[in-house]
Inverse folding.
């Protein structure tokens, strides 16, 4: 059974850091493109970052470039998102999703990130 489980969200002050994890089961993550997508309160979905299958090229939305880093641990079958220099506008529910950008076929349940003083 394919499953994605996110964790690591929480409340952090502006300028702080968090690391999100997405534990995958039922498939091998390096065989698929994997993504982070977020939804801020009252807004639509926003693609954040992707890690391509195989060798693993990374991509970032302009809004997070230079602050967020996506990575993958193949041995643990887990995807990560290191988020630094967090801003209030990064507040959102963060989802892990499998597949090519905007052709996602599996989603996790999400983990809440709140950036506030």
């Amino acid at each position: 059974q394919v499953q994605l489980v996110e964790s690591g969200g929480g409340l952090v002050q502006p300028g702080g850091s968090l690391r999100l994890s997405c534990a995958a089961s039922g498939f091998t993550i390096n065989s698929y493109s994997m993504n982070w997508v977020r939804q801020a309160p009252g807004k639509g979905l926003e693609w954040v970052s992707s890690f391509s299958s195989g060798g693993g090229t990374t991509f970032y939305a302009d809004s997070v470039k230079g602050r967020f880093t996506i990575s993958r641990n193949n041995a643990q079958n887990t995807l990560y998102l290191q988020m630094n220099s967090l801003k209030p506008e990064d507040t959102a529910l963060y989802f892990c999703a499998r597949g090519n950008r905007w052709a996602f076929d599996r989603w996790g349940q999400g983990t809440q990130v709140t950036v506030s003083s």
